[in-house]
Design goal:
Length: about 280
């Protein structure tokens, strides 16, 4: 099988690691008169459609978020990725506490797998470069990974302070050798990388998008006393201790932006369809 015109003047691979590629619509030509102006200015502000393209072969299969597949070509089959009732219950528990789908299908065979487009930014991470402990990601970021990458749920050290800080109690940790595709509200080149060497990083809010799993991650008061925290106005903060890396957003991410963008695009497409239908 040969795929023609996957890349052209309007859409190109923005980044590739191994068999994972990010197909970016530099300029989306599939527009109507109703939404052409919006799409033009969105493109200029780097708000673009992006898709993950994965090459599947005997050495590379992929696990993706359920419902993310758009199309696949060649001898590619989807499997449940579940190995018995115990494995299913374990995956269901992971999904319940990390806001991910309980069962993530695994695609095997030989061919090409293309995921649904998104207006979010795609981060391709080589998990092997994060050390034997791997990397931990913020809830809802997982999109796809090589089947060799293993996932597990990790908990905060002090759960009581996590509850008081309105933060999640658990996160998804990825480890092994392979590539993972993550959805981010911030471009990868805008993320700030902090490398810790037996040190600590304190962040007010959930600005960290991923961090080394071997780091000690807690939620603590900004000062040693309740009075001090009240005076400083900071309250509870996220603390990362040890030796490893943290990738963090420069500003608080705006998730509603992408939700409204997808809604706006859907409404414009529906309106355009009705207009041309008449």
């Amino acid at each position: 099988m040969r795929i023609e015109n996957l890349q052209n003047e309007n859409r190109k691979y923005a980044k590739s690691i191994g068999n994972f590629h990010v197909l970016e619509y530099v300029q989306d030509a599939s527009v109507s008169p109703m939404n052409a102006m919006n799409e033009y200015f969105m493109s200029k502000m780097n708000v673009r459609r992006r898709q993950v393209v994965i090459d599947i072969d005997k050495d590379h299969s992929a696990v993706i978020q359920a419902g993310s597949m758009q199309w696949m070509g060649g001898n590619v089959q989807a499997t449940s990725g579940v190995k018995g009732i115990g494995d299913f219950l374990g995956k269901a528990l992971k999904g319940a506490v990390t806001k991910e789908t309980a069962v993530k299908p695994e695609y095997v065979g030989e061919g090409c797998l293309v995921l649904e487009p998104t207006y979010k930014y795609i981060i391709l991470a080589d998990i092997g470069k994060w050390g034997s402990a791997g990397m931990t990601i913020e809830d809802g970021m997982f999109l796809a990974c090589d089947a060799n990458v293993k996932s597990k749920v990790v908990a905060r050290k002090n759960l009581s302070s996590a509850v008081l800080g309105s933060e999640g109690l658990f996160n998804l940790s990825l480890q092994g050798n392979g590539v993972a595709a993550l959805e981010s509200n911030v471009p990868e080149d805008e993320l700030i990388e902090v490398i810790l060497e037996n040190d600590e990083l304190k962040i007010d809010g959930n600005l960290a998008v991923c961090w080394s799993s071997n780091l000690e991650f807690t939620v603590e008061r900004s000062t040693k006393t309740l009075v001090g925290s009240a005076v400083s106005g900071e309250g509870l903060i996220n603390v990362y201790r040890g030796t490893g890396r943290v990738l963090m957003c420069p500003v608080a991410p705006t998730t509603s932006l992408f939700e409204s963008t997808n809604t706006m695009a859907a409404k414009a497409a529906a309106k355009s369809s009705n207009t041309f239908g008449k």
